[in-house]
From TrEMBL, chains A, B, C, D:
Domain Formyl transferase N-terminal as annotated: residue spans: 98-274
Catalytic reaction equation(s): (6R)-10-formyltetrahydrofolate + H2O = (6S)-5,6,7,8-tetrahydrofolate + formate + H(+)
This protein's record includes keyword Transport: no
Keywords: Hydrolase, One-carbon metabolism, Purine biosynthesis
Task of the protein: Catalyzes the hydrolysis of 10-formyltetrahydrofolate (formyl-FH4) to formate and tetrahydrofolate (FH4).
Protein name: Formyltetrahydrofolate deformylase
Protein's UniProt keywords contain Hydrolase: yes
Catalytic residue positions: 240
Amino acid sequence: MNRPTASEDDRRYVLALGTPDRTGIVARISTFLAEVGGSIVEAAYHADADSGWFFTRQAVRASSIGLGLDELRERFATVAADLGPETEWTLHDTGVRKRIVLLVSKEGHCLHDLLGRAAGGELPADIAAVIGNHPDLEEVTRQHGIDFHYVSFPKDPAERGPAFEQVRKLVDVHDPHAVVLARFMQVLPPDLCDHWAGRAINIHHSFLPSFVGARPYHQAFARGVKLIGATCHYVTAELDAGPIIEQDVIRVDHADEVRDMVRQGRDIEKLVLARGLRWHLEDRVLVHGRKTVVFS
Amino acid sequence: MNRPTASEDDRRYVLALGTPDRTGIVARISTFLAEVGGSIVEAAYHADADSGWFFTRQAVRASSIGLGLDELRERFATVAADLGPETEWTLHDTGVRKRIVLLVSKEGHCLHDLLGRAAGGELPADIAAVIGNHPDLEEVTRQHGIDFHYVSFPKDPAERGPAFEQVRKLVDVHDPHAVVLARFMQVLPPDLCDHWAGRAINIHHSFLPSFVGARPYHQAFARGVKLIGATCHYVTAELDAGPIIEQDVIRVDHADEVRDMVRQGRDIEKLVLARGLRWHLEDRVLVHGRKTVVFS
Amino acid sequence: MNRPTASEDDRRYVLALGTPDRTGIVARISTFLAEVGGSIVEAAYHADADSGWFFTRQAVRASSIGLGLDELRERFATVAADLGPETEWTLHDTGVRKRIVLLVSKEGHCLHDLLGRAAGGELPADIAAVIGNHPDLEEVTRQHGIDFHYVSFPKDPAERGPAFEQVRKLVDVHDPHAVVLARFMQVLPPDLCDHWAGRAINIHHSFLPSFVGARPYHQAFARGVKLIGATCHYVTAELDAGPIIEQDVIRVDHADEVRDMVRQGRDIEKLVLARGLRWHLEDRVLVHGRKTVVFS
Amino acid sequence: MNRPTASEDDRRYVLALGTPDRTGIVARISTFLAEVGGSIVEAAYHADADSGWFFTRQAVRASSIGLGLDELRERFATVAADLGPETEWTLHDTGVRKRIVLLVSKEGHCLHDLLGRAAGGELPADIAAVIGNHPDLEEVTRQHGIDFHYVSFPKDPAERGPAFEQVRKLVDVHDPHAVVLARFMQVLPPDLCDHWAGRAINIHHSFLPSFVGARPYHQAFARGVKLIGATCHYVTAELDAGPIIEQDVIRVDHADEVRDMVRQGRDIEKLVLARGLRWHLEDRVLVHGRKTVVFS
């Protein structure tokens, strides 16, 4: 008998599901998984009292199920149908590598961090391309063997439509699972927010909802806060108001000038983006309304 | 039709279970809960790859089930039997108030903290009694309307047997769900560790396994660590080596002398003990071997 | 020869000073302290590039100086005069016990915490009185041997003037070093803010500037933040906008309802208030404009 | 008159000094600095009650002093002599770029992190060379335009002498201010510890003194701790026992296997090493016996 290889043994089918709550959902899903022989490796549930919805994420050892992904999806569709028409679900195979595209500007710390994680085999996705509205980060990107596209943005915001259109095309050719604004510093137009809804992820350099918009470290300095933070969130049409995936903070004091906050803040931005992106790519983030359920 | 009162609506049956892992456990349990009409409010699962065991905690709205606790236990026993003879489980009704007994010495910060939480309705248990090997904390205990028993301990450790025997009797009369060593500063004899196994909870003033034993802040100061911590753990016969429930740390620096560490450490001790005790009382802590699963 | 007792040895003269920055300030002050034989135990400096001001706090072993506090103040006044007319400074003797008055409402966790710290000898001040706009916390206050004054506040905010006048009198009779709004839940009128400027300290249950005003945990829940916090700040006429002394946060997730945030937030409120108050009482907080310098 | 350029304005002379404590040290030093016109930008002091030593670090705007570094050192030597023969001090010019050499093995996360910081202009030193006992990290190092030297280490520890001798020569040619063991995984022989005393900096992947030696994440997993950490320390002949510069921790839980701890631990290792190294390079770390004073 063939023992699965280590990496084959690590392959998972990951189900993420949200549906209006009622009795018996867990029984319905777990009975189905037991019927197909699924060995559950991770399972998380959340019954949201506020919205009346139920959310679950289940990771099943792929080798324990004698079905391909398509067949499993087909069979699970009947379970989902039983749970009602509002049910939202995805079913992914971790053996199929995901793709991400990064949008950058001049600040390279988040890019460097993600490139380093990719090189170390830590990122659960391939970086398909990097797109910059400045050419500064082209060299480091290419050194890692990744395509870099420079798109020039006009000074006048009113004239940036064609530039965004070009970005959209460069991104969409990869059909990525995540479009990461890694300190991109450009506000996406509403149609792009819609187009990439649930896939466009931003890192904002403040602990939202404090210090929305431009120059948050300057705002933090002026207010005299004792902690600064960063927020990883889905991009929506309303600036810095999308569903929050992850946040963290770091202590500062009176001796820290704006440039010190900028420097220390970078470490938090890197961490928060890396964590949020990882959870997104592992189907650990379920969005409902303005909020997220994160099965971290 | 009677609507359950708010507090009746908050009443839960809480199942905590561990068993050797195999396919179908979740289906078996959730199907049972669905059959008795159980509305699951919280559910957590953990399949432990290292030990090959499976753990779960489920909180069900009591009002959704048309059975009393005893009948529910009886019915669930057949499910547990199906899961095999090694299965360990408890089923509690949050409507039945738990009891705890505190063992203290001279240092009052943990006692004050727990009394304050009890007064604020935050503690999910009643403090049945406080026992001290010094009389210092008698007054504050009595002011809160709680019995205090002073048990004198001889200087010579070899002669403390009768004192511990007296403590055992004073504790056992309450048949408590937790015996909390709230900075008790006495090492329990092995037979008491056995007798209260899984119920005796200690707060140690270091980040274990660093600085086992006496005067951990002095040890931390001598080593020059940059963080100090506290550890809440179950008491076992091996000193400071029982299963860890919760830990946390706080930053110190070169300017902090031992007395500063003692002062700052108190805040961490209070927090860590309060969190660990709460989780224990809410059946969120499952012990397996030297380690815990904490569904916090 | 008499050796000073331990507590006499711990007595300090504490100088806190702010002045427009220029070369030689440290030399001027430290030369003065050396001349009077002062053994410096703690010294901290901050040159604020943004405001162009210089701040320092120095703690000198009182027994090393052959002068009483009044004489020392008189002599230092000539140094301060040399530093220019804008110079602000205080000089305190830690051997003279400070006094604080607490304002409370119904929520008792901050009061319990401060009473526990006072009982444990940890608070560097005496609690002279507690004033409540509800009688709920009278009993626990009196159990600790502290006077409690109940002041009834009318429903209509427009009619609360006399109540605030009564509070002012009850406070001012103690001439306290700090008036602590320990979850007082009433907005001080501007004249009281002025009257207690630099002494009135509030604990706000959010990470300001997020969630100003009422029901911050509800606001945090609605926004879906991943950390909640608390802020200790001086009270000014603009609501929740005074100089921040200390802040901290705690992690929450999607499973935490508002009441869970309220419960977990209490622990942060207690810690942040205790730290901020301690620093204030130890003359570690220097206010300049809307911001603080904290020599913690 | 020429205004100094922005970067000239940022140039500092940094004095770091330790000496047995006595009255008048601050006055002596600050009077000297005032006499040479020094504008103090940062100043920190610590009187260590335990050892009876006094430590200070002062950063002075270089442009405010009409002396070159050599002349300033010569003049300050007379001040230091007055403070007694045990006095230890350094005086650096931040306008003179420091050099570091990195020792690596196969794990690249700390190297990637430091290369990214260097590329972003964040590191206060140049990476002069990277030396690896495996060739794995050669390519990424060279992509950043930095020399990489591969030194083969024999399996048998007893035969590694020549390899260490080769490493010593490759390092010493750069006369570096820091020799960073960025997950080097080789224990330095005692003579190299002595040779690089105060300059060899290690990152250990545990919260020392817990889990000294090999495979600390496995040890942490086996013990069931609830936080894992990393420690940046000076290398001494006793394994993992040198003076600690910085430590930090991250929360883990029962669901984290060893490989999860390894992954999450990397983020803490990177941060702790980057912070510790930065402080070392900015002369913020003063070693005394087994401990450090860190003016961060």
